[in-house]
Amino acid sequence: MTQRSRTQRLPPRRIGILGGTFDPIHRGHVELGLAAQSALGLAQVFVVPTHIPPHRPQPVASSYHRFAMVALTVAGRTGWQATDVELGHDTPSYTSLTLRRFHERGFAPFELFFLIGADAFIEIGTWKDYPDILDQAHFAVVSRPGCPVTHLPRRLPDLAARMTPVLDPDVHGTCVIFLIEAPTADVSSTAIRSRLADGQPITGLVEPDVQQHIEQHELYTAMVPGRREDDRSADAAAGRLHGQS
Ligand code: ATP
Ligand code: MG
Fold first, then answer.
1. CA distance 135 to 56
2. Strand partners, 15
3. Does the CB atom of residue 49 touch ligand 1 within 6 A?
4. How many domains is the chain built from?
5. Is residue 231 scored above 60 in pLDDT?
């Protein structure tokens, strides 16, 4: 069925896409997704771990472990799915490319809601394919502790006219920027990694299964970023022991 014939016959679907490095996924991410799901009536939330983030230092945990933790987090949540769309491509994971892949799967731009925290949305002007990317999906911007959405029209004056609170997500024929003020946990992946590196507990900050996964695989304790240089020389020494040059 072509996209045109589908949209003529059926009401639009409402699909959330929650992208992130998820190094690791935590309570704040889940609360962001739930807030957007209930405000916008999303039938599905696809959680998309970034493989190679273009705009930040590379993740500490591998894409495999980050995907596993996302899968453990969405398990049992109705309509939520861990999506590996970015993992098969060894090029920077640009969101515009990911959205194009959703279009190729038959989703119209106005059926997609890209979910994002206010701190990340402030950087949107630096993203690949800006400003065209704003026509590839609705953007649903959720507040983050210390980063309310009420500040966004002033912080991004060029986009203020496209911003709207959620009234009726169906009335918009074109892609808009929804602003959602919601209480989410004051937690970050950076804080979790640093707690683990310091041997502090992370109970309640991530799903229990994710905590167990982190502990079982010694993520973020054996691989803290500050040890990377040491690790590299240790790896080189190990390679020499195994006869590599
Ligand atoms: P890091 O500290 O490594 O940057 P993070 O906690 O910011 O990790 P990301 O993977 O960078 O998590 O974020 C993915 C998305 O989730 C971004 O859009 C970000 O704004 C949003 N987000 C992360 N934590 C929260 C939170 N506590 N409340 C609301 N949004 C959040
Ligand atoms: Mg972040």
1. 24
2. 44, 112
3. no
4. 1
5. no
CATH number of residue 230's parent domain? 3.40.50.620
| CB of 119 sitting under 6 A from ligand 1 | yes
What average pLDDT does the segment 156-175 reach? 86
Question: What is the amino acid identity at position 59?
Answer: P
Per-residue pLDDT, 39? 96
What are the tokens at 77? 């949540």
d(CA 237, CA 214) in angstroms, rounded, equals: 27
115 C-alpha vs ligand 1 centroid, how far in Å? 11
Residue 5 inside a domain? The answer is: no
Residue 210 and residue 69: Cα distance in Å, rounded?
A: 6
Residue 165: its pLDDT value, please?
94
- Whether ligand 1 lies within 6 angstroms of the CB of 96 is answered as no
Q: Is 21 in the pocket of ligand 1 (CB under 6 A)?
A: yes
Q: Which amino acid is at 173?
A: G
Tell me the C-alpha distance between 40 and 69, whole Å: 25
* 5-14, 159-168, 190-199, range with greatest mean pLDDT: 190-199
User: Which domain, by its residues, includes 145?
Assistant: 13-236
Predicted TM-score (pTM) above 0.90: no
**């983050």: which residue's tokens?**
144
Q: What is the pLDDT of residues 96-137, one digit of tens each?
A: 999 999 999 999 999 999 999 999 999 999 999 999 999 999
User: Quick one: tokens of 134?
Assistant: 């704003």
Is the peptide bond preceding residue 53 cis, with omega within 30 degrees of 0?
no
- Tell me, rounded to whole angstroms, the distance of Cα 123 from its chain centroid: 14
CA 51–ligand 2 middle distance (angstroms): 14
